[in-house]
Amino acid sequence: MCVAQVLTAHLLPPRQALGSLCSPWAAPRVGPLPPAPAMVRISKPKTFQAYLDDCHRRYSCAHCRAHLANHDDLISKSFQGSQGRAYLFNSVVNVGCGPAEERVLLTGLHAVADIHCENCKTTLGWKYEQAFESSQKYKEGKYIIELNHMIKDNGWD
After folding, report:
1. Within a domain: 14
2. Whole-angstrom Cα distance, residue 20 to residue 6?
3. Are the beta carbons of 52 and 39 closer than 8 angstroms?
4. Which residue ranges run through the membrane (predicted)?
5. 63: pLDDT confidence band, cut at 50, 70 and 90?
6. How many domains does the chain have?
7. Cβ atoms within 10 Å, residue 58
């Protein structure tokens, strides 16, 4: 079958599709092409909003490999997420924030917003919006990413 037959087989009767579109004497088609049939898959390329420098060690989303943070932005490895160990970062990329809500965490009351990967929409952890205890103020504006949602991606030899 030629490409025109595959693309139009579902729109025109078989005889008309063969005779009018694949004939060397057929008039050129005017207008948009018909939609691709179900057996043709058009895949979306993976593009991230931000790419981190290749010469630095970085962390990426374990589910889609979107860049998340440079190792230089890691503040602490001794945090606990809702599903296990987590890291505290100064800044992250390719993440979206949900609405802030007050939660009682291990270190007291905080206003936090869940964060998710912008590429695959997986919830990764949270952002500290506000700490209500003075000893916890250093966390404000920082990000928690749980270890089970990220991988070490570059320069970790």
Report:
1. no
2. 14
3. no
4. none
5. very high
6. 1
7. 24
Domain membership flag for residue 100: yes
Task: Return the CATH number at 120.
Answer: 2.170.150.20
3-state class (DSSP) for residue 153: strand
pLDDT digits (tens, 9 = 90+) for 86-116: 999 999 999 999 999 999 988 999 999 999 9
Please state, rounded to an integer, the average pLDDT across all residues of the chain: 78
Residues in the chain: 157
The residue behind tokens 């007050």 is 102
Within a domain: 131: yes
In one-letter notation, the amino acid at residue 150 is M
Range of the domain at 138: 56-151
Q: Strand (E) positions, the chain?
A: 58-61, 67-70, 74-81, 84-89, 95-105, 108-117, 123-131, 143-146, 150-154
The percentage of the chain sitting over the pLDDT mark of 70, rounded to a whole number, equals: 64
pTM attached to this predicted model:
0.66
Category of 121 on φ-ψ map: left (φ > 0), alpha (ψ -120 to 50) or beta: left
Residue 51, domain member (yes or no): no
